[in-house]
Amino acid sequence: MKYLSVVLLLLSQTVFAEQRIVSAGGTLTEIIYALEKQQSLVGVDQSSVYPEAAAELPQVGYYRDLAAEGVLSLKPTAVFALEGAGRPEVLEQIASTGVNLRVYKKPDTVDDLQHLITTLGNHLNASKKAQALNQKIQQTLPKKAVKTELKALFLLSANDRGLVAAGTDTVPNMLFDYAGIKNLAKTHRGFKPLNSEILAINQPDFIVAPAHVVYSLGGKEAFCKQPSLTLLKAAQGCQLLVMDSLLSLGLTPRIAQAINQVSNYKNNL
């Protein structure tokens, strides 16, 4: 009986060791690295930019627009996908080949993030590391700041077609909440267009934008000079905090770092 138990344990460890995982979602990839299970990864999507080593793995496109052929070419035994990944027919095609497809709810709160970490820990045979990671997050998470009169705006885009800002039920809104800052786009849910004329009356004290958006427009100065921002005093003075895209748009184990970046910028205005 004891011999049988040892054999079963070895078989279980072998199954976990032989997993070939494609991770579709930067949040999932970052957690997998934080759990020190990156050796199971054979491919990632384009949003998996942290840590830097993840970007060196074979890529399967952006997680919201996966192609079954690209994913299956890596011969995965499992695909870990964040909610919203791929088209239903693509996911069905992947699953129909026998690949273990797991779709995880996108975290909207710290509790959601910690639940995701626990779940991934269970699926990767890393429960103890998941528990330790959750404890670290809880210990480093700053307390919510006292509400101030400062107002901010998180922009997902700023171009000739207008502004798209982060409203409620978004990571930027949560960061502002922790930092004690009023979100001027709290009038809507998710990421939606915002009327710049309204903002001309109710001016933000500063703007936050993800790095990939800012640098796609030519950098910080070029972003601030976008025609859609000309009415904003914060843009005129280029009061702009440029944040790592995954850090500002997705809940990751670096949540405390994201909150502190916003708080520090606010405190140095």
Query: In terms of per-residue confidence, which ranges show pLDDT below 50 for 5 or more consecutive residues?
Result: 1-17
The biggest beta sheet, please? 6 strands, mixed
> What Rg, in angstroms, do the CA atoms define?
21 Å
User: Number of helix segments?
Assistant: 13
CATH superfamily of the largest domain: Nitrogenase molybdenum iron protein domain
Assess the beta-strand content as a share of residues.
15-25%
CATH architectural group of the largest domain: 3-Layer(aba) Sandwich
Global outline:
globular
Distance between the termini: 68 Å
Name of the CATH first level of the largest domain: Alpha Beta
How many distinct beta strands? Answer: 10
SSE order, one letter for each helix or strand: HEHEHEHEHHEEHEEHEHHHEHH
Using the coordinates shown, work out and report the CATH topology of the largest domain: Rossmann fold
What is the share of helical residues? Answer: 40-55%
Number of domains: 2
